[in-house]
Amino acid sequence: MTEEQLRKILGQYKSGTLSEAEALERLRSLPFEDLGFANIDHHRSLRQGYPEVIFGAGKTVDQVAKIVEAMYRHDHNILVTRTTPEHFQRIKQIAREAEYHEIARAVTVAKDHTVRGKGTVMVISAGTSDMPVAEEALVTLKIMGNNVEYVYDVGVAGLHRLLDRRDQLNRARVLIVVAGMEGALPSVVGGLVSVPVIAVPTSVGYGASFNGVAALLGMLNSCASNVTVVNIDNGFGAAVVASLINRQ
Amino acid sequence: MTEEQLRKILGQYKSGTLSEAEALERLRSLPFEDLGFANIDHHRSLRQGYPEVIFGAGKTVDQVAKIVEAMYRHDHNILVTRTTPEHFQRIKQIAREAEYHEIARAVTVAKDHTVRGKGTVMVISAGTSDMPVAEEALVTLKIMGNNVEYVYDVGVAGLHRLLDRRDQLNRARVLIVVAGMEGALPSVVGGLVSVPVIAVPTSVGYGASFNGVAALLGMLNSCASNVTVVNIDNGFGAAVVASLINRQ
Amino acid sequence: MTEEQLRKILGQYKSGTLSEAEALERLRSLPFEDLGFANIDHHRSLRQGYPEVIFGAGKTVDQVAKIVEAMYRHDHNILVTRTTPEHFQRIKQIAREAEYHEIARAVTVAKDHTVRGKGTVMVISAGTSDMPVAEEALVTLKIMGNNVEYVYDVGVAGLHRLLDRRDQLNRARVLIVVAGMEGALPSVVGGLVSVPVIAVPTSVGYGASFNGVAALLGMLNSCASNVTVVNIDNGFGAAVVASLINRQ
Amino acid sequence: MTEEQLRKILGQYKSGTLSEAEALERLRSLPFEDLGFANIDHHRSLRQGYPEVIFGAGKTVDQVAKIVEAMYRHDHNILVTRTTPEHFQRIKQIAREAEYHEIARAVTVAKDHTVRGKGTVMVISAGTSDMPVAEEALVTLKIMGNNVEYVYDVGVAGLHRLLDRRDQLNRARVLIVVAGMEGALPSVVGGLVSVPVIAVPTSVGYGASFNGVAALLGMLNSCASNVTVVNIDNGFGAAVVASLINRQ
Amino acid sequence: MTEEQLRKILGQYKSGTLSEAEALERLRSLPFEDLGFANIDHHRSLRQGYPEVIFGAGKTVDQVAKIVEAMYRHDHNILVTRTTPEHFQRIKQIAREAEYHEIARAVTVAKDHTVRGKGTVMVISAGTSDMPVAEEALVTLKIMGNNVEYVYDVGVAGLHRLLDRRDQLNRARVLIVVAGMEGALPSVVGGLVSVPVIAVPTSVGYGASFNGVAALLGMLNSCASNVTVVNIDNGFGAAVVASLINRQ
Amino acid sequence: MTEEQLRKILGQYKSGTLSEAEALERLRSLPFEDLGFANIDHHRSLRQGYPEVIFGAGKTVDQVAKIVEAMYRHDHNILVTRTTPEHFQRIKQIAREAEYHEIARAVTVAKDHTVRGKGTVMVISAGTSDMPVAEEALVTLKIMGNNVEYVYDVGVAGLHRLLDRRDQLNRARVLIVVAGMEGALPSVVGGLVSVPVIAVPTSVGYGASFNGVAALLGMLNSCASNVTVVNIDNGFGAAVVASLINRQ
Amino acid sequence: MTEEQLRKILGQYKSGTLSEAEALERLRSLPFEDLGFANIDHHRSLRQGYPEVIFGAGKTVDQVAKIVEAMYRHDHNILVTRTTPEHFQRIKQIAREAEYHEIARAVTVAKDHTVRGKGTVMVISAGTSDMPVAEEALVTLKIMGNNVEYVYDVGVAGLHRLLDRRDQLNRARVLIVVAGMEGALPSVVGGLVSVPVIAVPTSVGYGASFNGVAALLGMLNSCASNVTVVNIDNGFGAAVVASLINRQ
Amino acid sequence: MTEEQLRKILGQYKSGTLSEAEALERLRSLPFEDLGFANIDHHRSLRQGYPEVIFGAGKTVDQVAKIVEAMYRHDHNILVTRTTPEHFQRIKQIAREAEYHEIARAVTVAKDHTVRGKGTVMVISAGTSDMPVAEEALVTLKIMGNNVEYVYDVGVAGLHRLLDRRDQLNRARVLIVVAGMEGALPSVVGGLVSVPVIAVPTSVGYGASFNGVAALLGMLNSCASNVTVVNIDNGFGAAVVASLINRQ
């Protein structure tokens, strides 16, 4: 459903061609598709230039399949996060372009390969165990049309590794920094660059890391003032915001 | 100290005009000014295009005065946050351009009025009591060279007020949304716009608001994926990131 | 056991027909049935017009069966919450009218279909994953004699969907709003209606949602003053209170 | 502004008497009054039959005075909560009917004394120190047109006092139960009555009461299923919901 | 090892019959038995009149068996808490008197059946799901030589059931009150009796019960001043203290 | 009001001398005195052999005076906890026997000096700063008729001081152990004695002591099984339970 | 890669034999080995005299194998913590010297058996269940070249066992004290010795131990001032610091 | 009291010159001085080579004076932490050598100026506001006989400042790193040195720093394995441990 369609319905209502009841009916039925358990909101893609996104966690193979099917009729890219190989098998039958990203636990269906970002988004992670979150960010960045670079396993206790890459860091237009445990990496990176840093705490760690709380608090209290934070393990959200910045 | 100076020292070292010891000495002495209790880092302004910033809370009038004095010799703008009228009186004696922003509890010394942002940054707050934080953001945005707009006291329980401003929201290049209590406003705003939203939880509320924790958690769990979060009451940080985005 | 029976015993005691010991014995044995591990309190149904309710979680098939059996001799409706298909199989053998509500994880035995509510109770949920809690509320509302309506998957980041239903919202006599993550929906709904809103936080979310704590705090701090809150995932409790309000 | 006025503007727009711009202008200017730091929303009183309410905490005498002045031109009752004698002195100059309720820390301006509630609302508190919260509820109930009864200082460790009042409890249409410390009173009261109980945890206590958290958690986990909960010390909110129920 | 043996060794050291090294050696080897992974401290039974106790959780069948074997050579009663049928099978082979208490998840080996308590200890639980903890208390009370009574499933929302038993409560010399959820029962019981009440919070509940934290806080903040508290689910500890009181 | 009076009223009702209404009236008016803001419950002293107790915190001089006045007409001992010199001055005018206990912040009015405890209660504190809590316990123990001993400032990092007193510890019938910071003292004391230990965490400490939470958790997790716990800083509660144990 | 190699590259760059690009290339490729998912930092061993360490938790058998393989080419000792028998089987194929330490869940590959510590490090644990953490410390201490002693299962409720070993404690140069539950042991040990005590809280316990939080807080608030603390269950970290102290 | 005195008493007891009772009496009276509210433990200084230390917080001028007086008779150094100018004035009258350290809020009385540390201890702080804690560490280090160096205000967002000092860092034998907010500095420093790092979280920060909790968690989860942690703001404790390490 396009904006033109919306304007047309409104115009017909104003002119009296459509009664109030009819206008409401059309508006109600069009922009959403109500699958009973889920409302697919094609508006959002319209409004925000997003791919259509399904948060896969806690949805059955069946539910995900039905949503993908409804989305697939439109020409948007599709991204399914927090998903499994079982979901993928079924999606593959609906959409042949579907790809599974194992470490990221994500499925993408890419129809539109336009590069929309003006520069490069860089993803940095502190440890090997942070990879699933970093990869979720990477996959999201790509499906949203960004050029990306990444460097993994560069914790603050081994600074030289990071300092080595300083030039590369300075070329990025936005950075996503993924870290668990003490979550100190975004502060250090923030001090090295002059662009926005999006910090993603991860649930990696044990004991007093409290499943990512230590990292989250560390990032919220960053002494680098170019750092903002998203939820624990939310690689997807970080990538959405980075994409929006990169398009500006 | 300019980048040219830095390059010159490095060149002289390479060519042998400066010994290693001399080069180190110059580099060490130049970029910082060590006031004993504080290291002013003129590099940061160089590197990041920031004004020089002093976090005033917990610093004596004397300490702040000495830091301002050292900064004032350079041509950067100066911003003192979390400060008091007493601090201001003293700063005024050093820098005649100094202005006091009462609600924001901030002092600015503006030498450079260049507009650096490409568009408008909008600041939205949920309630009257959130004003000190919203104003800290506004003051910071201005001293960093942004055009700003704002709308205050538009909580989610009175949506019509916000929906009324929809066009205005959609013209902004970045939005800062300030809210205490349940912190729901960024999610609602995030759903209405297609640009980054920086959410600032405030310590406004009582009982189970836990001095801003409820708002902070609400924002971290936002169902709008274009939202990132900064520390409770951190209007300054939100404005820095918004400025960086607005320059891109 | 009816109130008449109670009055009779008391009368006989006053008049001396029953000794104190006998009176106590009768009173003690009648209103409860002591199954050893559980005291069935038929009084409560008497006093409060409730169905008899069993909280199924952590009870064996055997325990639930014995309690249902004891209840089934009376003419009250029966509701078993947090239960499983295994429990249902066994209950079915005792009470042929038993029905299993899969998503709600509930069993009902409906003997009395009287509509006791004066108006409609509406159940609204923010996301697909909140359905088990929303359905528990729905099932409870029905067994307690209410007319119900519902709308699912209308999060605050997509307000238009909710605003579309405004008339429907305004027809309800009470609303139950179910949401996880940031739990902002009750505030928004509360601002749109003039009747009580009962907010149910759910454990849906990840990271800093802390299994429903973020939603719970959001709801307790709601800026809409017609909102009260029940425990995380407590669809049952919300429905009981909504029923009581709807009967008045 | 009445609903008639709203309907009129909409009708004129439909018929063409008003252009879109004019219609928007009127709608925008009328329902709110923008005092710069606050938006008074006369709509809310229209929509919800509330008095106009000001949350006084953290507002200056001047700010409160300006808001009261703007409200006083309309015929609604006014309630200022969390206020001080200083606020009252100033309000008194604007509105002669103003009364100060010392223990409740509230000011009321009552123009409309209609009884709107169908029955009695009862307020029960566990201890003497809970009185400010209980009184805030009482004052709010009265200004919203309810008949009220109350009983104070009836903690669960002295049950006989409460059991003595059983008949009185059973006559109420809604009950507000205010308690700090372990917050057990709503569960006990909930078991004695068949109507909704609104539980208000208070910050009364010390040590592991954590300023009302213990009471809040106790109430959220109540084994009585007719209990809902509001924020710590939120006597006002409890009274609003109780009023809405009592009007039905 | 008896106190006499200890005195003898000390006497021999004083008189010079034993060298310091020899004395140390004897003292070190006797009172403990070091199984490598565990030190059995027969002293404790001597000193405190306890049975020998093994906390079974997290110990292998083998480890428990070795400890029981070492203990069994002495004439003390043995209690294994938090154990499993597998542990029991193996213990049975070592000690024929061993009994398994399924609900309590405990094994006892009773050699000494002396009644040591002067009166009755009563165990009261709020709900059916609290039974494992209540039974752990009961089993411990019996192996420590107490006469016990119990009443289960008497939550505060159904007070009449508890009030019915008032005489029985008043006959007890100590009471153990076990409750999850809001943990209000000890306050109510505490108000009805004049003897010490030991409150045991359980991890029963969901959502904001936080695995027993709500109950724990409720009990610590009890308005009844004859209540003390033990750790969540610690039926054993409550029974030990109750036994000590009952012996006095 | 004595038990005899109660029995008389009940007898007259049974025999018909008193109508139900008259009986209720007498019962209602006698056992309580309703001062408006407080219900004095003389029953409690009757039932439990307690002194009459006023929790002074947050009560005005006037309120406390009125309650003391009402209590003073009876022959019970009176204890006012958490009080101030101002309260004392006023109480002194009502009750000449009143004494102020400065460190304990308590006032006592002792009319009855009977020793009711069978043995000695010992109070032990870990540090000098724990004294207010330890003294509150001591004052309460004395007014409840116990012989007491105490030893202060014997932290676990200087064990020899405690071990020196071992004989003294072993003579006590109950021990109250007061400690802030890590709260380890009750575990150590618990291992040295064979009687009940009541642990009182204090809010003494800084940083991660979280106003007594560290001590509270330490005590709840004590590896000594003869330890029970009361609320942070609750010296009064510990003393009440110790008194009850000491009377048995 | 040795320091000599580093110096050589720098010298060649200074003299012009290597261009900047070449120098960077060599430096970048040498000190790290980038396995894609992990950067092995041979520098760290160089710089700090550590064995090469792999944190095994959450790494696949394959990932661990590849890292060990890369490390094994150098002459450092290797330590794999938080690992499994499956990991060990595979490591064994790469490094025949590999040993599995079952309780410690660690694999070591020891090539260098030099004793580097000047004295003895002692490991003390409070309970049998703390063994995995204590053993992780022991294994780490040994692979880092320390002489070690240990004593297990000496909780503070049985002090005599610990006091018995006083001489042994006083011979240690550093002590590691491992405890769960109330975590009081380090305070007691700290009071008995004059050397640094490294406290390791463990997640052993239940209920209000909150998986080691109670022990952690207890240790942070230790009244013994020679105590420092590491993360919950971090036997490895404690051993590293103890080794560094023991080498001085 | 010296060790010689202790040995003499023990020898006399062995030989029979002293009876047991006499020996006990002497031992008991000597090592402590019981001031009623405090036990001065001269043993500790003997045993551990510490100065005598008084934690001043919450002690009156009078109490501190009496303790200093008792200590001053011996030849140990004295340190009073968390103290005020008022305390100092009074101490000065007792001990003329007393010095007040304003920023550290400490008083020292230095009689013994022996350097006991083998190397240098370095104190590093992240921000100006951390100075009180850093200075408390410095004062303690000096009174315990260490050579010290320090560098302040070197946060991780300005790494170059720290890297500049790398040589200096590498010369230290132990480092104390003091930081508030995100507490990341110890991890970075830990990665740069090969000796123990003692991390001190401070309560500096606002919002989600939770008075030092964010910094504390960050440090406990440090990815540098040579880091141990002390309580929030505990500069004193860090210095004690650093001194002990530096003496080895």
Briefly characterize the structure.
The first copy, chain A, has 248 residues and is of the alpha/beta class.
Provide an overview of this structure.
Eight copies of one chain form a homooctamer. Chain A is α/β, with parallel strands linked by helices and 248 residues long. Chain A contains eleven helices and eleven strands. Chain A has helices spanning 3-15, 20-29, 42-48, 61-72, 85-94, 131-143, 159-163, 166-171, 185-192, 213-220, 235-247, and strands at residues 32-34, 39-41, 52-55, 78-81, 99-101, 106-109, 120-125, 147-151, 174-179, 197-201, 227-229. Chain A has a five-stranded parallel sheet with strand order 8-7-9-10-11, with helices on both faces. In chain A, strands 3-4-6-5 form a four-stranded mixed sheet, with helices on both faces. In chain A, a hairpin with a 4-residue loop joins strand 1 (32-34) and strand 2. In chain A, helix 1 runs antiparallel to helix 2 (20-29), helix 4 runs parallel beside helix 5 (85-94) and helix 6 packs parallel to helix 11 (235-247). The radius of gyration of chain A is 21 Å and the shape is globular. The model of chain A has no long low-confidence stretch (mean pLDDT 85). Chains in contact: A-B, A-C, A-G, A-H, B-C, B-D, B-H, C-D, C-E, D-E, D-F, E-F, E-G, F-G, F-H, G-H. The interface between A and H is medium-sized, with 34 and 34 residues.
